[in-house]
Amino acid sequence: MSNPILNENMFNKADRYSSTETMTANGAIMKAFILALVFSVAAIFTYSYLKANTIGYNVPVTQFIIIPSIAALIVSIIISFKPTTAPFLSVVYSVLEAVALASISFLFNAVYEGIVFEAIACTMIVFFTMLFLFRTGIIQVTAKFRAIMFTAISSVAIFYILMMVLSLFGIRPDWYYGSSLISIGISVVIIGIAAFSLILDFDFFVEGENSGLPKYMEWYAAFGLMVTILWLYLEILKLLAKLKDSE
Questions:
Q1: Structural domain of residue 240, as residue ranges?
Q2: In-domain check, residue 9
């Protein structure tokens, strides 16, 4: 599996008889572009709003970050359990994540000017590098590769939950939140896992077509890819901030 969204179990969950049309890789790619466009427009609007109002650190976090993030999580869970909702809820998810990540990016850029552009550029470089490795067959998806990724992503998920629980008690370990070599190393590992998750996302596009999944799964595949890309961007943003703090 690449992430909790795109995994081989979805081939069993999908209702193959819900439509006479089937999923195609090109169709999924088009849906991914649509979600990316929706996300970009919403993110630019949010960022411009914050900048125009010069809110800076007085941004109401519960309104611009926490609430959209929680809502996006709920929407993603619904899509995961009910893939038929992907054609419309994936768009909702993109807007919610756009508001949250644009607000987070605004705060980061207020401290490290230019960091958002750097994070976007790095994310694009990683994305197209992994796409090249997949298309050329340099990296192939095997059962062993899937097993390794499953273990890696599960470990990261558990780690995130542990850090979140600790933060609720006011505990923020410097070895993770700081700019030490250990903290930077952890971020690099997580980014690596997110990057290799893209390989399995790409593979899902192809396997979905080969397996004859229903047409709505194009939106589901595009949604899963968005989840990985946004995860990758946020981790790269955090890593760049750590590197700047360590200088």
A1: 20-246
A2: no
